[in-house]
Amino acid sequence: MVSHKKSILVSAVAASTALVGVVVASPAQAAPNRSCTANVGNSGLSAAVVAHSGQRIAYRAINATGCDIGIYVGQGVSHVRIDGVWVTGAGFQGIFAEKTSHISIEHSVVTDGGWKTIDPTAPPLAGNGLHSYVGQSFAISLFGVSHSTVRGNLVFNNGRGGIGVMDNGANDPGHLSMAPYQNPSAAPVDASYDSVVGNRTWANYNGCGLVAATQNFGGSLSHLMLADNTIAGQGLSMTKGADVGGLVVAADPPDSSVSNVSVRGNRVTNSVEGGVVVNAEAFNSFTKDVTVEGNRLSGNNWGAQEAPKTAGVVVFENPGWNAQPVPPQAKAPVNINTVITRNFITSQFYGIWATGNQAPKVRWNYIRVTAGGMPVSIG
Fold it and tell me: What is the mean pLDDT of residues 56-68?
């Protein structure tokens, strides 16, 4: 998610997680999809199911093998409820909603998708170096979506990250990145009043476990609840890539912002990057009023991505966006009024690691560090 990821060269870590508490249709009930709707939303991608406004898609198995997207919710298609669905086999994104509002995705399983998004013939993406023709491609993607909920889902064994909440606009992160699938004159579509609550993610390779981040110049995310999610990193697979894990709140491009975000009650373990990461990534970008509270974090940032050693919570500013200095008259990126409180942090060299012009407010955390470690490092 951030623009300075290091390569990961370590042995894989194997683990397993049972499917508990989710009632869905069995994947054995669905045959491979034989009819995909092409170029949905002028994305350049096909979809097995295309939703319409007011629709409830419930208690069914969708085998999207042969399609790029499992369920597509397009621009202006609102009040769609996806409940108790098993989505498997989508080449790019299991569930993709964009430029709309009032969407709920609940008690569903999204698995075995996203593997087509990594393409060795594609140029490397700025920031992470992945070879792909799409900028972002999560198992569950909400890009430019507001007043929506992602709750109680299982997301595992996908090829490009777990759950992503992002803005939309001239850069549509879920579309193919070349013309005519991008519209440079498109109006910005922000994301606000979204909740991502009580989901379980693991083994989602080549992308973060849960991300709320801007993707457009001047883009905005606000009033987000990221709560009670479990993100369990599975290490590195020499065939699938790194299960990056982590929970990220980021203002990435210039002039973008992320504000009023509650990161509460999540459990994040064994992530390549920091357990919870808050960062402003470019000139004139900022995060504001991000509260990191009551999370349980252990064994994160083992890939030394943002901090030099393992770290539970990471807060930083990265003014060298795309290796470019802050222009004259522009402001450096900043994280404003970040609060880190009542977290339970163990097996980390740094419990909390922060850099930048505005130090986070740190109070009432339980932190147990590894040998020689520092509970709090603010530089």
Answer: 98
Task: For residue 14, tell me if it sits in a domain.
Answer: no
Average per-residue pLDDT for the chain: 91
- Please report whether residue 330 resides in a domain: yes
pTM of the model: 0.91
Tokens standing for residue 322 = 């795309």
Domain count, the chain: 1
- Note whether residue 260 is domain-resident: yes
State the CATH number of the domain containing residue 361.
Answer: 2.160.20
Give kind and range of the element (H or E) at residue 339.
strand 339-341
Write out the residue range of the structural domain in which residue 275 sits. Answer: 32-378
In whole angstroms, what is the distance from residue 16 CA to residue 97 CA?
29
SS (H, E, C) 258-310: EEEEEEECCEEECCCCCCEEEEECCCCCEEEEEEEECCEEECCCCCCCCCCCC
Inside any domain, residue 199? yes
The stretch 78-106 carries a mean pLDDT of 99
Q: What is the pLDDT of residues 307-332, one digit of tens each?
A: 999 999 999 997 655 556 788 999 99
DSSP one-letter code for 328: T
